[in-house]
Amino acid sequence: MAPQRHPRFSEEKLRVMVEEIIRVEPQLFGSQMQQISIARKMALWRRIMDSINAVGQHPRTRDDIRKRWDDLRGKVRSIAARLQLAVQRTGGGPSPPPPQLTTWKEQVLALMHPEGLTGVAGGLDSGATLSCSRVYDLSEPENRYLRDYLDDVLAKGFIHHSTSPVSSSLFFVPEKNRELRTCIGYHAVNKVTIKNRYPLPLISVLLDQVCQPTIYTKLNLRGAYHLIRVMKGDEWKTAFRTKFGLFEYTVMPFGLCNAPSEFQFFINEVLQEFPDVCIVVYIDDILIYSSSTEEHIGHVRVVHEHHLFAKLEKFIFHAPTAEFLGYVITPDEISMDRSKVPSILDWVALRSIKEVQQFLGFADFYQRFITTFLPWYLP
């Protein structure tokens, strides 16, 4: 008997399924779930379905979905327990957060989709010429994933069909969680783009700010770059070709050389009213820090309400330690992330000056933790 296929859900079916799962298993989230809007519940369900639908195996059978859901229950229960604990600790609501924090939501809503920021796609050097890149041959699972990706971003308005005279190639890079990351090869565009020199924060300065607090929450923004629109008239520069057609972005895609600087400028504008108060940001990585649990609940609640959605799998909530930008931060010390050590110990033998430079560039990031590191730089 042929296995049942996992259907594509309409908005109405999604709404019904979300309400059903909350009704059948309310203990997962407690009474506070009843106060969450249906839109938020649907967003939660979409995240769960994203985890269920592993790349290369879509659509899945219903048996596969049940098994994967069982695997996820432990994680969901853990998150729900921490949410429940936070609600219990508030005792009806935390102390008011600093006044400057209450304006963050309004600032983000005002900046969420600006008409365009200069340099998102970037001006091109005078006399620059661009051409059309080739369409890569993708595997069948990759083509299915691409079709789903295009359907998703077309529905959201992140891309539209293009008539651009130039284009870049699309390809996929596998991630640790077995999913695929969509990449556009903007090498030719970046080569002739006038660079935005807006500075990224110095990591050493950020670390100095967060080493004294006692409680941390870390989040990585989901689709961070897509919060910024491509400047009107520059969309054609972001065009990419696939077997399904030619498309261009209306929001800032990953891969453009100016994207990190543009997003750092954006997030700094959002946070300009309260620098160094309780939050540090490096592009799309955010660390919220506080000196007490009560204060932290207020800080996190404000951040949670500002509509910058985080990746659930990279969310650390109310923790005494935090891994941030390759470091482990505690109230007493900052240490090296031990998961990075094998990358240095297992580095392949160096065979050229360029490879030596690459290794030193990586190792230098952790030189403060390596005894007698500097003498190794001698020629």
From TrEMBL:
Domain Reverse transcriptase as annotated: residue spans: 174-328
UniProt cross-references to InterPro entries, sorted A to Z: DNA/RNA_pol_sf, Myb_DNA-bind_5, Rev_trsase/Diguanyl_cyclase, RNA-dir_DNA_polymerase, RT_dom
Xref: CDD domains: RT_LTR
Superkingdom of origin: Eukaryota
Limits of the Myb/SANT-like DNA-binding domain: 5-79
Record-linked Gene3D superfamilies: 3.30.70.270, HIV Type 1 Reverse Transcriptase, subunit A, domain 1
EC number: 3.1.26.4
Enzyme class: hydrolase
GO molecular-function term, one example from the UniProt record: RNA-DNA hybrid ribonuclease activity
Pfam families: Myb_DNA-bind_5, RVT_1
Matches recorded under PANTHER family: RIBONUCLEASE H, TRANSPOSON TY3-I GAG-POL POLYPROTEIN
Similarity annotation: Belongs to the beta type-B retroviral polymerase family. HERV class-II K(HML-2) pol subfamily.
Protein name as catalogued: ribonuclease H
Organism in which the protein naturally occurs: Pleurodeles waltl
